[in-house]
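This follows on from our talk about sequence and fold. Please put the record directly below this note.
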Amino acid sequence: MRKVRIPCSAAPLLLGTGSVKLIEWRLNTIRTLWQSSSAATTFSDSHRDRLDDLCVIDDRDLLLPSRNSETGLHVLDLIGSGSLEPNRSMYNAMLKRCTQFGKLREGRLVHSHILNSKLRDDLVIRNSVLFMYARCGSLEEARRVFDEMPSKDMVTWTSMITGYSQNECAQHALALFPQMLQFGSRPNEFTLSSLVKSCGFISSYKDGQKIHACCLKYGFHSNVFVGSSIVDMYARCGYLSEARLSFDKLENKNEVSWNALITGYARKGELEDALALFIRMQREGYKPTEFTYSSLICASSSIGSLEQGKWLHALTIKWGKKLTGYVGNTLLHMYAKSGSIQDARKVFNRLLKIDVVSFNSMLIGYAQHGFGKEAVQQFEEMLRIGIEPNDITFLSVLTACSRAGLLDEGKNYFGLMKKYNVEPKISHYVTIVDLFGRAGLLYQAKSFIEEMPIEPTAAIWGALLGASRMYKNMEIGVYAAEQIFEIEPSYSGTHILLANMYASAGRWKDVAKVRKVMKDSGLKKEPACSWVEIQNSVHVFVANDFANPQNEKVLKMWEKLNHEIKAIGYVPDTSHVLLCVDQQEKEVSIQYHSEKLALAFALLNTSPGSTIRIMKNIRVCGDCHSAIKYVSSLVKREIIVRDTNRFHHFRDGSCSCGDYWLDPLHSSWKEGAEAFLTLPIEASAGVKCKMHKGVFASLRSEWEGKGMD
């Protein structure tokens, strides 16, 4: 095979794994030929023949140097001058290297030479060009080449479909498949695997079933690559039983197959099933990958299981997994999300390689825990060492500033986005509105919305509504709610927040109107639940639900606490009770909220002085926030509560949020942010105790029996 480029530069970029001595010898010979040539643009016939022989080296030895070297000899220069006429193999080799290393600019140069050559209509060459553009992410150019091809074969269709799939344009990939069949091209395993993945990307169960049927029809369902994609597709669509069935039917499995199912269980918070499959994977001789560990760690963090997360961390150390890539950043995120920002910082400090993802994970951790000053210091350190921030970085630091009341810093960083060519998204605008709103600058926030270069969304008006509720500004609050109703009339949260505002002002007729609208529209409030992990078992509580086996003890504990904290200054906050009843009845209605029951249960079942961690699927209410502050002072323990948007660290009668905690209706994390930034609440009122002590003990014994603890 011919060499892609012939370098004579002092420091060529070696993109191969062949013999260095062989390459050096050939380069020296080429230099001699070049220097002995009488012209810089042509070779004699004998020189060209000898050069042709030298260029026939293994594909692994191909080089891609810079074209800017003064002493360099570039193969494209030779082609352009007519000194060298490449054949199909040489063009394919050049395109292959451009594809392999994502060299889109060089690929375009090769394509331009091909268009002026005798091979411009060659189907094989056109397929290579199409594949190069698709793999390099230039789908418009790939589609242009595809549409201009007078004839297409299976490789053509597969290259275009795969390009769409790999660049997350699933709908385009699926739309192309019927056309492929109509033209009489038969799909292969790569075509079907890409189509199945596309169905998984958009969680299209119906399309997935159709493609699965095609896999059966063409006999590729037992292919390990296609089969693994089918397992992953069903898991992504939420059909774990079908994913498991497809997995069990696979005659040949690989690490990808196992990871697909383990990840599926992990996404659903089914940690027990994921761990059991993890055990079986090793028992059958398959080696877990970094992706396997990351999936399990994510599963533990999704339910706030710090104990299990630490245990998985210990396993990664036991099996020699270094703190790099997926595993390191996932561990960092797990600790931050499970309520231990100190452990997250330790992982960050021990990462072998720190990148923008590492900084983003640490910044979002600080933001969620309300540590605004630490987030600012982290961001400044990131800029100092030369790591360029992206849109997620700015979203993280802006949210940290908003939640900590750092108005000047937040405004400064929003202006800094332009310097780094980061275009503000909806989520960034939401955060700035929230920043102004929390500072009490409601009219400035309203003006900011009106002057925005984009159309305001429900999330943006929701931030203003949340701030209006905080500062009891009925005028702006009602105005913001009206804007939301026009954009998103079916969202129950708007109605609930507006009703709360009316209730706070004693406008009970307006409360009744809002509730009637909700009832007539079939809108319902999401049921609240809280859960706490005790000895590897997750215990879930809902308000006024007394089904816990320790129910009597839990109620007595909370009633005792309630009496004691009232004695030291606690006054129940009934301002948001949507009932026109007397004060005593209002107090009864909020006495047994889910987080209060979870707290009482934790105090009964944990040792004195230990930290208590409670998770909740919606925002913690004002009364519970106040009550837990007093309890932390009374029992002399740190209590950490994670709700949908942040962590609250209660210690000695105060909270880390500084009572600057009321979150907007639509969290800025929920629109426009990357998935890993959100706090997914897989646990809800229907959650069972996933990891019971006995089950976990049996799994531990399995590991210990293999020396894996």
About this structure: The chain has a mean pLDDT of 79. The two ends are 51 Å apart (CA to CA). Residues 123 and 152 are 8 Å apart (CA to CA).
